[in-house]
Amino acid sequence: MLAYLFVLLAVASRFLPHPDGWVQFTPLGAALLYFGARVARKRMWIPLVALIAADVYLTKVSYAYPLTADHVVTWAWYAGVILLGGALLGRHVSPVRVAAGSLAASIAFFVVSNLAVWAVWHMYPKTLAGLMTAYVAAIPFFRNQVLADLVFSAALFGIGALVERRVAKPASGQIRAA
């Protein structure tokens, strides 16, 4: 149940204004990692549908931009992070694995999303120098995403561990059934 709450938080964060300098500081990557680690793979469509719907609404209604191929890349990244959470963290959650998953998610998004922006939009020349310019321009966003993914992953997995420990521990004075 906690995984669904974290995804809801991530979807809601897409609609909140971000203070200057804090763009990309959201719990999205962490929530997807946590969902992948804690929910059966057959339910991964739930956060995908919610996030795709939010993206379509924000793109078409709020920003009045067209939907383009770079959106599909982002949606594939959502699925990839959920799968990464299941593969890397499913039964073996540790601080090192959470940090590794978090960093892998951040780096993957940086690489694929900026490649997609370079390929789809006409912001940069379609040359190697243009691609490198796209990556350099995205560094401030990458910094925020790495920080957010690490902080929120630690928080979400930490909260999850506390809740699991609390549920597993019987209330004082009660005897646990065998």
Give a quick set of tags describing it.
7 helices; mainly alpha; 72% helix; 178 residues
Instruction: Note the gap between the termini.
Output: 25 Å
Using DSSP, what is the number of strands?
0
| Computed Rg | 18 Å
Overall form: globular
What is the mean pLDDT?
A: 92
Structural class computed from helices and strand pairing? mainly alpha
Largest sheet: none
The stretches of 5 or more residues where confidence is low (pLDDT under 50) are: none
Helix content: over 70%
The topology string of helices and strands comes to HHHHHHH
Instruction: Determine the strand fraction and express it as a percent band.
Output: under 5%
Tally of helical runs: 7
Task: Tell me the quaternary state.
Answer: single chain
Description:
It is a single chain. The chain is mostly helical. 72% of the residues lie in helices and 0% in strands. The chain is built from seven helices and no strands. It is globular, with a radius of gyration of 18 Å. The chain starts with a helix and ends in a 10-residue tail after the last helix.
Short description:
This protein is an all-alpha fold. It has helices at residues 2-13, 28-38, 45-62, 69-89, 95-120, 128-137, 139-168.
Element layout with pairings:
Blueprint: H1 2-13, H2 28-38, H3 45-62, H4 69-89, H5 95-120, H6 128-137, H7 139-168
Helix pairs in contact: 1-2, 1-3, 2-4, 2-7, 3-4, 4-5, 5-6, 5-7
